[in-house]
Amino acid sequence: xxxxxxxxxxxxxxxxxxxxxxxxxxxxxxxxxxxxxxxxxxxxxxxxxxxxxxxxxxxxxxxxxxxxxxxxxxxxxxxxxxxxxxxxxxxxxxxxxxxxxxxxxxxxxxxxxxxxxxxxxxxxxxxxxxxxxxxxxxxxxxxxxxxxxxxxxxxxxxxxxxxxxxxxxxxxxxxxxxxxxxxxxxxxxxxxxxxxxxxxxxxxxxxxxxxxxxxxxxxxxxxxxxxxxxxxxxxxxxxxxxxxxxxxxxxxxxxxxxxxxxxxxxxxxxxxxxxxxxxxxxxxxxxxxxxxxxxxxxxxxxxxxxxxxxxxxxxxxxxxxxxxxxxxxxxxxxxxxxxxxxxxxxxxxxxxxxxxxxxxxxxxxxxxxxxxxxxxxxxxxxxxxxxxxxxxxxxxxxxxxxxxxxxxxxxxxxxxxxxxxxxxxxxxxxxxxxxxxxxxxxxxxxxxxxxxxxxxxxxxxxxxxxxxxxxxxx
Length: 474
Description:
By secondary structure, the chain is mainly beta. It has helices at residues 2-24, 44-56, 159-162; strands spanning 62-63, 69-74, 86-90, 105-109, 123-128, 132-137, 140-147, 150-152, 163-169, 175-176, 189-198, 216-223, 229-235, 249-258, 265-268, 275-279, 287-288, 299-304, 321-326, 332-334, 346-350, 359-364, 368-369, 377-385, 391-397, 413-415, 431-432, 436-437, 444-453, 462-472.
């Protein structure tokens, strides 16, 4: 009987506490200075291992049955509205001793808003794991209540007893990393990308208040060092959604994660101030535009569909150059009737399982003399699978000497009018480039299809290319 009364009083206290926090916005600042004995502690790596064993056994979640705690640090805040009913907690305050203790993070699903009133950035917490489930939501590891085959939210009446605060608050040093070096171990952790800028085609955009922003604003960031791209995700409920994304270049700090549908990698800032684009100098590539043509010319100058190539072998077409700049992979012939089918036989570049930290490959046309005819137009089709942060460009040069050694020395300009499939496009579709007008160019040029990626997860996308046609009017 006394136990029932105690439960009732405790529940009433929790309700009053919640009402006070929400109604009067008074932070719950009470903390505890306690330590969990070593025998009751479990590492993030051990939690991940328990989940992986459950998945290998045919389950989608793992239930922690032992009375154990995991120590971590809060790296997210909902003050700016870019996180909602979740805490992101990582296992260290900096990136020291990566071999001894792999850097990992978890999302904690909690049915409670304004969690920043209770948990500050950098706050040291202990997660009481007994009875909780570990699984994946939106592609990232999540801790919450078990709900059959999914992970459900921890309820408002219990989360303070599960995610227990100490009175220790630390300054978190984000991991300084290049976009191409991010891996699954960086998910749910705070990272910093340096020498980054907003893609030139999105200059003038707000964080998340454009007419096409339905739930999140997705803005394309790119590395000035490698050109590698990553999407910044901002909620349309954030209080900085109408702020213009800075136009210069610099650094961005945020949580590395996956988008809502688990289609691609994203970085999620806590606030707009996490973008420090203080350098007014941008690193945009050279580019060229003659505009679009209404029709493709009727006389064919170049027509390549790769039908005579050997499947799964490097493209070796007369007059073409298949140059591997870095890594071990190049453009290869590919044929498939699966979900993402080829167009007969197509050209494909894939870096998955290459083992290379970087894969850069060029497929360059034979020389094209534009002075012998008029009204030249270019048309091709592209498709992709798991593009992730890898990307493909279409460029031209009028000063390449035709040798592999001279590829990187030539002056290549991006043909900005050509549409190349994006990571956000449906992966089963072949998308046309449009009729790219080349009539304002002159002399002898080469057109290059360049892939940039790598063998690491999140950078190992696949691009397909086919039906390349260059025609002219007369």
